[in-house]
Design goal:
Layout lengths: L11 E7 L7 H12 L3 E7 L5 H10 L4 E4 L4 H7 L2 E2 L1 H6 L4 E4 L4 E4 L2 H12 L8 E5 L3 H12 L4 E5 L3 H10 L6 E4 L9 E6 L17 E9 L8 H8 L4 E3 L2 H16 L6 H14 L1
Parallel strand pairs: 1-2, 1-3, 4-6, 7-8, 7-10, 8-9, 10-11, 11-12
Antiparallel strand pairs: 3-5, 5-6
Helix pairs in contact: 1-9, 5-6, 5-9
Bound molecules: NADPH dihydro-nicotinamide-adenine-dinucleotide phosphate.
The site of NADPH dihydro-nicotinamide-adenine-dinucleotide phosphate has 28 residues, from helix 6 and helix 9.
């Protein structure tokens, strides 16, 4: 037996649970974090059937597991399941990180801080006093709203295909800043410094119905989706003159780093990991 971090007998066990899960990059990211930090972390992906999250988590706890990431479609179920939540998870209504403690399950949400860190630290964008358009009103949009508003933008407009969901979401966060909800047709003559695509449109190779001229001079565009090639939204943003256009790979790595910190008390360096994943995505294309 060795003391290598990836020897299953010598490491603490972590996993990501979701459905589907086969293509998750999380095991790769956490392996790279473990190598970089020397933390004895083993991490695997677990496919969970609909309705079976509580049983899957209980099994993992019984095996001595130390922590979990929870992904689509179980983040709201995980919110219900945990015994205690961080304020940011409480507000997001979703849990993507569970720390298994001796007497309880602690739930956190690292998606929002992951996005903000990618925008500010990696892409060098300042959000203060900016006008931000957040597209989509699903779990991803909800999870990032509080950390975005914390940056004190001038305005966040949430636009959604089903306008009522955007309006309801804006109302739920109105105490944190200036935030409005609407349908795409209501965007009219508004101009934004930053467009964030938190819809599932890119998954279908689709684009939200955006009017031309939405971007202010020097504006930036961010798609939470990522892949080997630019999404339809990223291509559209380039044509619209965006100066910075990015996909969600950095957010994925940043939210993972924050989870690693929650579990281990150590924050891995993210840039080399983002770079490595980018190269691997390109090689797989
Ligand atoms: P949900 O299913 O909760 O919400 C989907 C949202 O997309 C809804 O607002 C829906 O509108 C909208 N939508 C779906 N299809 C279209 C379309 N063709 N045109 C316009 N709007 C559309 O999904 P999530 O919020 O969980 O995830 C959204 C995206 O964010 C996914 O692509 C996911 O991969 C990504 N994501 C990335 C992360 C990262 O780390 N990079 C982390 C989390 C999410 P309506 O309400 O009208 O149905």
């Amino acid at each position: 037996m060795t003391d290598h971090p990836h020897d299953p007998d010598a490491c603490d066990h972590y996993a990501v649970m979701g459905n589907p899960i086969a293509h998750s990059k999380s095991p790769r990211i956490h392996r790279l974090f473990a190598e970089q930090t020397g933390e004895p972390v083993c991490y695997r992906a677990i496919l969970v059937e609909p309705g079976k999250l509580p049983a899957a988590v209980a099994d993992f706890v019984a095996e001595g597991g130390r922590g979990l990431n929870i992904t689509v479609p179980f983040k709201q179920d995980a919110w219900q399941l945990v015994d205690r939540r961080s304020p940011r998870a409480e507000r997001a209504g979703a849990v993507n990180t569970i720390r298994i403690e001796p007497a309880e399950l602690f739930g956190d949400n690292t998606d929002g801080v992951g996005l903000v860190r990618d925008l500010t630290d990696n892409l060098g964008l300042s959000l203060r006093d900016r006008r931000i358009l957040l597209m989509g009103a699903g779990g991803a949009a909800r999870g990032v709203l509080a950390p975005l508003l914390e940056q004190q933008p001038a305005l966040v407009v949430i636009a959604n295909r089903t306008a009522q969901r955007a309006v309801a979401l804006a109302e739920a966060f109105a105490d944190l800043g200036t935030v409005q909800g609407c349908g795409y047709e209501a965007l009219g003559e508004l101009r934004f410094d930053l467009l964030i695509n938190a819809t599932a449109a890119s998954l279908q190779g689709d684009l939200p119905p955006l009017p031309d001229g939405l971007l202010a001079e020097g504006g930036a565009a961010y798609d939470m989706m990522y892949g080997a090639r630019p999404t339809a939204f990223m291509q559209w943003a380039k044509w619209q003159g965006a100066t910075t256009v990015a996909d969600g790979l950095g957010m994925l790595v940043e939210q993972a780093a924050e989870s690693f910190l929650v579990w281990r008390g150590v924050r891995p360096r993210t840039r080399p990991v983002i770079q490595r994943l980018r190269e691997e995505l390109a090689a797989d294309a």
